Amino acid sequence: MTSGLWELVLQGVWVTVQLLFFSALLATAVSFVIGVGRTHRLWIVRFLAGFYTEVFRGTSALVMIFWVFFVLPPAFGWQLVPMWAGTLALGLTYGAYGSEIVRGALAAVDPAQKEGGIALSFTPWQRMKLILLPQAVPEMIPPFSNLLIELLKGTALVSIMGMGDLAFSGNLVRLALQESAEIYTYILLIYFVIAFLLTRVMRGLEKKLKAGVGKAAAKSKAVTPEPAGIGGVR
């Protein structure tokens, strides 16, 4: 390929990375809000969170992109640029999957931990912040890593809007050179490299968080006094 065509591909990589970053941020926020809502004590909050999850898990991300980009503008009188339309559609869709990861991790925390927070007169928010989330978040990292890779591959769907991501740029280069095998091999390798780097970063984050939880548990055990025996003899 010529330098100009490589520049086009690199521009597509940059657009894909930006889209991945913004949609991952939105998906993470949605995951925690909806996931925590699924465990709320009020049934109406659980119902609304569950309804959202079922709706967005049961619809196609491709159709959602079409809906956000082509249906919302005439309905509300405004137009989203492709980057934000893709971010909104992908973030809301993958956030629904992420909410189940959050809900499952919170449910997996030892019930005794929750009971301990109640015994200490913690509010529900204090129990969530100080007890449940610090233990649940490290367990969320492996499934979130898989979801992030799926989101990366899902970014290729935005090419239907004419957005110049990696998939769209690769197709332009293919049309220019009339070489499908070579170009799509390069595109596959680029996606693989990005996914590999994301996996390594997430594994490093998982190790760091789990090490932090272990140190916190050890410190808590060290400062907890042993119960005295009869007459104060240990």
From TrEMBL:
Q: What positions does the domain ABC transmembrane type-1 occupy?
A: 13-202
Keyword Transport included in the entry's annotation: yes
Q: Where are the transmembrane segments?
A: 12-35, 47-70, 76-97, 156-177, 183-201
The UniProt keyword set, sorted, is:
Amino-acid transport, Cell membrane, Membrane, Transmembrane, Transmembrane helix, Transport
Against NCBIfam families, the record matches this protein to: ectoine_ehuC, HEQRo_perm_3TM
Show the PANTHER family listed in the entry: L-CYSTINE TRANSPORT SYSTEM PERMEASE PROTEIN TCYL, MEMBRANE COMPONENT OF AMINO ACID ABC TRANSPORTER
Question: What name does the UniProt record give this protein?
Answer: Ectoine/hydroxyectoine ABC transporter permease subunit EhuC
**Source organism of this protein record:** Streptomyces vinaceusdrappus
Q: What is the lineage of its organism?
A: Bacteria, Bacillati, Actinomycetota, Actinomycetes, Kitasatosporales
| Gene name tied to this protein | ehuC
